[in-house]
Amino acid sequence: MTEAPSARPFLNLFGRYLREQGLPVTHQREAVAQVVFESEAHLSVDEIERRLRDRGDRIGKATIYRTLDLLVRSRLVEEHDFGEGFKRYEHRLSRQPVHEHLVCLECGKVIEFQAREIAAVEARVQVMHGFLPARHRLEVYGLCRECQEAGVTLPYQGLTCPIDTV
Amino acid sequence: MTEAPSARPFLNLFGRYLREQGLPVTHQREAVAQVVFESEAHLSVDEIERRLRDRGDRIGKATIYRTLDLLVRSRLVEEHDFGEGFKRYEHRLSRQPVHEHLVCLECGKVIEFQAREIAAVEARVQVMHGFLPARHRLEVYGLCRECQEAGVTLPYQGLTCPIDTV
DNA sequence: GTCCATGCAAACCTTTTGCACTATA
DNA sequence: TATAGTGCAAAAGGTTTGCATGGAC
Questions:
Q1: What CA–CA distance (Å, rounded) separates B132 from A43?
Q2: In the prediction, which pLDDT does B5 show?
């Protein structure tokens, strides 16, 4: 929610990436990148489009999608799918470089946290399964503090006698 | 890949769930549930439809989706999205009740494994963030043993000088 | 001047829904 | 017989693509 002090250095990195790839640096690409780099939120394409319009930029959705693809390829931006039916994008320049997500099932809020245990998990699957980890995703779904305090609960709607799954 | 010895007990549980909810037990619902319970794989809707046809059942996709929704609600089946553009379904009666997934980026194979560390992670977010965990998802993406042995590597395609993300 | 990007609209793909018909209980 | 399910086709919703125009280098 807080805005980063300056997106400039990251815009420069993106420009460098485009040049490395022999691709032109266009106004639209700079604008989309700036919106993503200036926000600490997990933005949807609709939100990005709205912020661009608020800045006075009318940029087509196709261009936004195409630019996000470049940003993800450059590894400056991460794509997330929290099961809402659309994707969200977050730049990788936050204070917590590698982090996981808590997703509130009631209000949709996303909280970042760190889980150092994952390193041990990745080391173990390499030994036990011969699997070479490249990246991971850990999301914990539940209720954020505020929704719990507002009295929200998650109803159980499965079988009356749940199967044992521990 | 191996077939479970008998899906009967689980079909009975599903029947009980339907009766609890006052819903009729139809031939189509039994057939879809049986296909899911009989497989140890992570099935897509297309795969389920194909297996139904192979059994001689011609059941519309709409009915398959509607039945999968009931199976997920009953907590007998889990829905997964491994980022392929469609969902996969897995029954919850495997030998490893709670497990995570290794997804091979080359061949798409899914391997199940256990990560007991997650319990500690969930306990910690409850203390540190006041977040009440309900469920989680942990997926590790990388290369399976066979694809590594076949010489597959994952090319780095980001910036030549990657940003530090520890 | 040569590529490549952009914008628009159409296409795509999975999933959902409306509706006439049929089956369950 | 009443209620709910099924199948088909159409709709929905996010994302991708084709193509003519316009911009970067």
A1: 24
A2: 57
- Number of domains forming the structure of chain B: 2
Give the gap in angstroms from C-alpha A15 to the nearest C-alpha of chain B. Answer: 10
Q: Whole-number Å distance, CA B138 to C1' D14?
A: 24
Q: Within a 10 A sphere around the Cβ of A147, how many other Cβ atoms?
A: 20
Q: Decide if B166 is inside a domain.
A: no
Instruction: For tokens 């990388």, name the residue.
Output: B142
Other beta carbons less than 10 A from residue A121's beta carbon: 23
Model pLDDT, residue A3: 47
Q: Write the single-letter amino acid at A89.
A: Y
Burial A128-142 (b: 16+ CB within 10 A, else e): ebebbbeebbbbbbb
Q: Give the pLDDT band (50/70/90) at residue B159.
A: confident
B138 and A121 within 8 Å at the Cβ level: the answer is yes
Residue with tokens 């794509």: A79
The sign of the dihedral angle between the CA atoms of A29, A76, A70, A59 is: negative
Closest residue in B to A75 (Cα) is: B158
Which DSSP symbol is given to A110?
A: E
| Cα B5 to the center of its chain, rounded Å | 20
Residue B118 burial (CB count, 10 A): 21
Q: Does the nearest atom of strand D lie within 7 Å of B95's Cβ?
A: no
For residues B102 and B84, membership in a common domain is answered with no
Whole-angstrom CA distances from A86 to A1, A80, A82, B21 are 20, 9, 8, 31
* Collapsed DSSP state (helix, strand, coil) of residue B40: coil
pLDDT in tens, A25-37: 999 999 999 999 9
Residues in Cβ contact with B115 at an 8 Å cutoff, skipping those fewer than 6 apart: A117, A121, B100, B138
How far apart are the C-alpha atoms of B41 and B21, rounded to whole Å?
28
Structural domain harbouring A89:
1-94
Question: How distant is the Cα of A58 from the closest Cα of chain B, in angstroms?
Answer: 28
Shared domain for B72 and B11, answered yes or no, is yes
pLDDT at res. B94: 66
CATH number of the domain where residue A109 is located:
3.30.1490.190
